[in-house]
Amino acid sequence: MKIVFTMIAVISAIASGNYYSLAHIFPTDDHERAFVVEAGADIVHVYEDGSADAVLDTSAERWIRNAGIPVVIRIDNLQRFYQIQCSGKTMGGFMTWDEIQIWMDNLHANYPGITSPPTSIGDTYEGRPQLVMKIGTDNTFTNDDTTRPNCWYDGLIHAREGASMQNTCSFMEWLCSNYDRNGYCGLVATYVLENRDCWFLPCYNVDGWVYNETTSPGGGGMQRKNMNWSLGDGVDLNRNFAIGWGGPGSSGNPNSETYRGTAPLSEPENINVDAFWATYLPIEMHNSHTYSDLLLFPWGHKDDPPTHMSAYQTQGEIMVQWATGEIYGPVATTIYIASGGSVDHAYDLYGSMSWSYEIGFTSFWPSLDEVTRLTRRNLRGFLVTALLAGCPLDPHVPEVPVLEPIGLVGNDFTVEWSSAPTASSYGLQEITGYDLIVDDHGDSGPFVLSGWSMSSEQFHSGTQSYHSNGSGTMTWNSSVTIPADGGGRISFWCYYNIGNGYEEGAFEYSPNGGSDWYYLQTFCRNDPTWRRSIHELDEWQGETLMFRWHTQGGCDMFVDDIMLEAWDGNEFVDLSISGTSYDFIGHPSGDYWFRAMALDPDFGWSWASEVEDASISTGIGGEEGPCIPQVTSLGCAIPNPVIGHVIFAVDITEADAPFTEIMIFDISGRIVAELSKGDLGSGSHSVSWNC
Ligand code: 0X9
Ligand code: ZN
């Protein structure tokens, strides 16, 4: 059930309260729902029955109670509760304003070639700089290369939503630290830095953040609005933008949490950002909030779908499939009408595809552990936003090429793959030391099931899959160390049917032997469709990882066809191949594995293909006719492990030819197959056996 909260402007005579509670409120009809929001409730979760969790300040609570709407306090004195929970850390472990500035300076010092110095786009109400940093190989802050789509990311427009800043910073760091690295993640980060101009404002409402620091130095501050206290206790910067300003879902009461200010763009923080956007038109505008798992787009100020509804829907679907698995939709119809918000403004005035990411958590002051737990999955959402900036109105992810089997070849050979419809060129990756660690098709494999079981109710292949119908974990019973210069990939198919709400199904990794688990991806909506999840692992080079699937709260989730691969060496042979094949001349002998990926000129790189193995051996193939080996030898089995046909390279000298027999023995010494007895003749052969 979707609840639409409509707000009507009401001027309240009640003075602002700085005492907050978390309450479960029970409006019974649309009129009461409108009233609740109008009173200044910050709705953080809407239940299927229409009741909601809301953060209320004193005046909002009094208004709602006086109207006879039931209010059940969940947490009294929320600020105190958060202060205790934050327990002794400065700002609950979040960066203070001073630390944010130092952090930005350090990021620039560590990556001077791909970042601009943090640059002020103007001062806040109290005269602090709003610091923006550009990240990209074109790192001149003021350059706006028209061939590179612009992306804008901001955090902390609401000063009590610290995780929005911390996540924005994590993404900035991810981009910089993966730039020019030698694996797939490195390839994608490099693509973004070379093909996008990304600007970041991690601390939008600096004054509000500093106020929270001053009044609650240990964390737990509840100031949401800016510090223009000339008429009340601040202006909600996300109600002060011009489009729809003054409309429903914003308040004319200077003490309301959703006070819109005296005029559109009356606040310096918004004047600065608007002026920046007007110059550096964002193709994608990404505005982060906490908390609840929602991905929102325009309109906020009216109930109508945006003009580009289908592009928004497609982008939203791509974003949630890559990362957070939550529901997405227009602000007004998904949560409540909110006028004067930044997404409506950027979309309407500057044509930006605009997003409000209400990133997970169940608190304004989550522990830093919880922030870290959610960061990885969130930054995939941030990343795909930058990729989609190349195809905003025709959002698509490029098809993955399929490699032809390679098998046993000589030193000159050709690798071929299928064409991807939107690709302009292809890349080819050469892998050494490949290991297929898990290849499980729901066959009671190497997993410890707790609250999970095998099920034939749903399956992606074969006749069964792993199923959780409740809460529990399915943990891989081993760990993998990603080689220092190598990479890896874990992929699986997943089908889930979950009540829309908080994150209930998750795929997690642990980098410390199972002590802490962090989300790679979450599943928190109804999506009963088999979809593949892919996670490249080269960003964890040198680290040892464990993996598990984790469900809670009655989560109905199926997992099948799990594949974990790791390899020692990564090399991109060529990243601008115009056709669908690549010729190797004089490639050194040995065992290699290849993956191809398509480069879509708009989106960037596709996922990599499945690997194909090549056993490269002197004397096989080539144009010079048969060459007689000097030594009789048996090459390794390709592929290994195998189901079906396995191929061996066999070199036989002239002298040995009449006496050579090829037999397969099992581990106990029993003959399993006799493949040839003196009848192969001398030369280099490839012998096939159907096992
Ligand atoms: O109400 C808001 O501003 C956002 N929710 S929050 O709890 N973080 O305050 C929702 C933002 C929706 N987006 C716009 N209306 N622009
Ligand atoms: Zn917010």
Walk me through this protein's architecture.
The protein is of the alpha+beta class and 691 residues long. 21% of the residues lie in helices and 33% in strands. It is built from 12 helices and 34 strands. Strands 16, 17, 18, 19, 20, 21, 22, 23 and 24 form a 9-stranded antiparallel beta sheet that branches. The protein has an 8-stranded mixed beta sheet with strand order 5-6-8-7-9-12-10-11, sandwiched between helices. Helix 5 crosses helix 6 (184-195) and helix 9 crosses helix 12 (368-388). It is elongated and about 100 Å long. The two termini are 55 Å apart. Residues 1-17 and 622-626 have low confidence and may be disordered. The structure holds N~2~-sulfamoyl-L-arginine and zinc ion. Zinc ion binds next to loops.
Features:
691 residues; alpha+beta; nine-stranded antiparallel sheet; eight-stranded mixed sheet; 21% helix; 33% strand; disordered N terminus; binds N~2~-sulfamoyl-L-arginine; binds zinc ion
Give the N-terminus to C-terminus distance in angstroms. Answer: 55 Å
The level of helicity is 10-25%
Q: What is Rg?
A: 29 Å
Quaternary structure = single chain
Number of helices: 12
What are the distinct ligands in this entry?
N~2~-sulfamoyl-L-arginine, zinc ion
The largest sheet is: 9 strands, antiparallel
**What's the rounded overall pLDDT mean?**
90
Would you tell me the structural class of the helices and strands? alpha+beta
Number of strands: 34
Low-pLDDT residue spans: 1-17, 622-626
The coarse overall form would be elongated
Range of strand content: 25-35%
